[in-house]
Give the backbone structure.
Amino acid sequence: MIGSVSQRVWSLFYRVSEIMKPQVVFVLGGPGAGKGTQCTRIVENYSYTHLSAGDLLREERAREGSEFGQLIATYIKEGKIVPVEITINLLKKAMEDTMQKDEKKFRFLIDGFPRNENNLEGWNTVMDEKADVKFVLFFDCGNEVCINRCLERGKSSGRTDDNRESLEKRIQTYLQSTRPIIELYEKLGKVRTVDASRSVDEVFADVKAILDKEG
Ligand code: ADP
Ligand code: C5P
Ligand code: MG
């Protein structure tokens, strides 16, 4: 009797650990704060997969036959946030593809998401049960530094939004729509803030300290 109960407990334990829930860190900060740069460093040092919502949208924009290409192009140039139905499907598919290829890859850095209320609602509707959000990694950086970094990046990025006109709109979107989301997570005690105005190495030293502590 006792033997069979313990057998059942163990088999349940193994089943649960087999189907690992994705562990997610949301990475937020203004345009040019260094989210992508720091995510690359994290991937080199920790077992995380980096998914940038902006990169996924640019890929979808370029995909032949995409029904959303034109819409995405307009939103990006205008610095507006694409309706979440599009973005969440790209994120969900990227997470599923990653885990299907390698079941050990269940930790994700989701960079540039959720950027507004609509993004957050979409996450809660589609992913809330399916993934655990551990915390928000917030790269805090003044607007002037952000703009200058993006203008510098614009010399070689080929991005349609690394110009002064788009950047002013992107900063407005960040202040009006994204900051409130960060504040919301702050109230839940889920934000880990890094001063991102310093050098890449200095910023990464703080990131490391956070990840070493949080696991
Ligand atoms: P984000 O993904 O937040 O928009 P990126 O990581 O693409 O930002 O960085 C924007 C630009 O600034 C890039 O050209 C990058 O090389 C540069 N950059 C990133 N972090 C720093 C830093 N700490 N100091 C100076 N330049 C940086
Ligand atoms: O993060 P990144 O700078 O690559 O984002 C570029 C643009 O992609 C944003 O300004 C926005 O137009 C779009 N985007 C979005 N929704 C997200 C992330 C990015 O619409 N969650
Ligand atoms: Mg980026």
About this structure: Strands lie at 23-29, 49-52, 107-111, 132-140, 191-195. The chain has one domain: 23-210. The CA atoms of residues 116 and 176 lie 9 Å apart.
